[in-house]
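2024-03-11 09:14:02 INFO queue: dequeued item LemA family protein, len=184
2024-03-11 09:14:02 INFO validating residues
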Amino acid sequence: MKTIRNNWKVALIVAAGIVAVILLCVFGVQSSQNRAFALEEQVYTADSDIKVQEKRRVDLVYNLADCVKQYDKYEAETLTAIVEGRGSTGDIENVTTAITAVSEAYPELKSNENYKELMNELSITENLIAEYRSNYNKQVKEYNRYIRKFPTRVFLDVLGYEIQNYTYLDYDAPVDAPQNLFGE
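2024-03-11 09:14:37 INFO prediction written
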């Protein structure tokens, strides 16, 4: 009777040990997968941040082009009105009157300030894009390191996690900077 009781205890301890090891493996795999989920989500978020800033850049470029067109139109109209005012008579008094009329007809539109502000915003956006690309590459690096580590690699390979790619910029720009752009 004692041997059956002792065998029963041993069998129960072995079964509890096996269940504990199985649970430990399941929780270990799930923990690895949860960490991979979090890192993968950080990579996707970093990629999305880049796309948002690139969209902002495109919008700013269109706004900048429109602002420059409007400013050029304003300047052209103003100069045309001044030249016409000068051409009608040689009298300086008439020129002054024409300039005053033009300035009253065309109040300061602040286009020049809008142009400067858009240029500043474009510069800020370019800096943000560079920063977000750097952040993306850091997130990819952290993710790739994690999924390549042992024993995590064994579980995550089975679950289908793959290495992410870095963002590389290749503009095919010439090696030498252009010289004598305005010709002398």
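2024-03-11 09:14:37 INFO annotate: Residues 171 and 177 are 14 Å apart (CA to CA).
2024-03-11 09:14:38 INFO item closed
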